[in-house]
Amino acid sequence: MAANEWELVCGLEVHVHLKTRTKMFCRCALEYGAPENTHTCPVCLAHPGALPVPNERAIEMTILLGLALDCAIAEQAVFARKNYFYPDLPKGYQISQYEAPLCGPGTFLLPTAEGEREIGIVRAHLEEDAAKTVHAGGATGRSVGADYSLVDFNRGGTPLLEIVSAPDLRSAEEAVWFLRLLRQTIVDVGVSDADMEKGTLRADVNVSVRRAGEEGFRPRWEIKNMNSFRYIGHAVEAAFRQQVEAHEAGEDVEQSTYDYDPDTDRLTVHRSKEEADDYRYFPEPDLVPVVPPAELVERLRGDVPERPGDRIRRYEQELDFERAVELVLTGKERNAALLAAAGLPWPDAAAIAMNRGEFLPENAGALARIVQANLTRKALDEAFADAAKGRIDAETYLAQTALGDEETLGPIVDAVIAAHPEQVATYRGGKEGVLGFFVGQVMRETQGKADPKVVSRLLVERLRQE
Ligand SMILES: [Zn+2]
């Protein structure tokens, strides 16, 4: 980067709902889409005298994810009260972790086509989610201008994992790539389905800018509760543009919370600095500190699956970087690996996994034979459809070989060419797109049994002869 050029400084705070059976501090079941206020109890409704009991599974899941992010695991983590008032927070405080989080610091290796980027993980801590407020009436769906607001306490008390990255991200593209791979890591370790549409993954984005080579940080803008990769990318770019404009115009850039408006592609201030939050954190007196036993941490360390970044590097030995990324992010890698293990070359295995649906693992061997044989399209479609339902026998499909021998196809190709002198002239006149017409004719003559690749070759050979 040239001296004096503006540089983006971006960090993310990612919130993930943990996939536990019950809430963080009570035994209410977690069920997405359940009728409103059907999963509540004195604890999550904050009745006087009700006491929280931590969800052990949520603590284990947090440690597991922390280990997957190469985080240090605290010898003693402390739950803390974060005090603020909001109608969706009946206690008047949220139980979170402040000075002593369960996990952190750590490092996230972000593979790129050019090499490896190291993104710092400041911390990963456990807290409870607030309930859900629905604002009814009014144009914006926000509290301002609404006719009334309703609260659904089903979500209140859901175990929430917050992962805070260091401000190490240097472009909107990199921020989105980091979030995608982080999401994949979360899904892989099985602690959450991390689905932005369902709201089980949300991200706050912090953005500032500085001159290349400048030490320290300028005031940052926080963009809260983003739930789309695309909008996150746009919001980061908009924040960069607007801050650079402001700095260059000599205006003050204040630290505040901003909202991104996709319609105008601009950020507008949400909450000003004067109202800056003061949460008055203090250790939660109703809970003892969490002291993770060393054996537990070691056992969980053994449960961490190969990281998505490492898998991308491994697949990259066989495929190009883009393809390797695609396999990992679309969840098609298991099928590709099964087909490759059954003898298909990796690029073919990857292509088939990307283009075909799911199949039972025990069918990988039969499918590898089938796709290498010269089958009709119909037979291939049938084989994959059947392979999703039950065990298949390759022989059933291998009989339906596509017609590929030149001795049989040659005369048919000749006849088709002889029957269409006009199209031949068109082809020879330079419009080679007409080849598709000839292939179609031959396929029709052979009731779809001809191998289109062989047909194309034979046609081109003959059509090019004057
Ligand atoms: Zn409850």
Could you estimate the helical fraction of the residues in percent?
Answer: 25-40%
Q: Strands of the largest sheet, in order across it?
A: 4-5-8-1-9-10-11-12
Could you tell me the radius of gyration in angstroms? 29 Å
- Give the H and E element order: EHEEEEEEEHEEHEEEHHHHHHHHHHHH
Low-confidence stretches: none
Structural class: alpha+beta
User: What does the oligomeric state look like here?
Assistant: single chain
Mean pLDDT: 92
Largest sheet: 8 strands, mixed
For the structure shown, list the relevant keywords:
eight-stranded mixed sheet; single chain; 466 residues; alpha+beta; three-stranded antiparallel sheet; 13 strands; binds zinc ion; elongated
Structure report:
It is a single chain. With 466 residues, this protein is of the alpha+beta class. It is 36% helix and 20% strand. It has 15 helices and 13 strands. The protein has an eight-stranded mixed sheet. It is elongated and about 90 Å long. Zinc ion binds next to loops. The site of zinc ion has 8 residues, from loops.
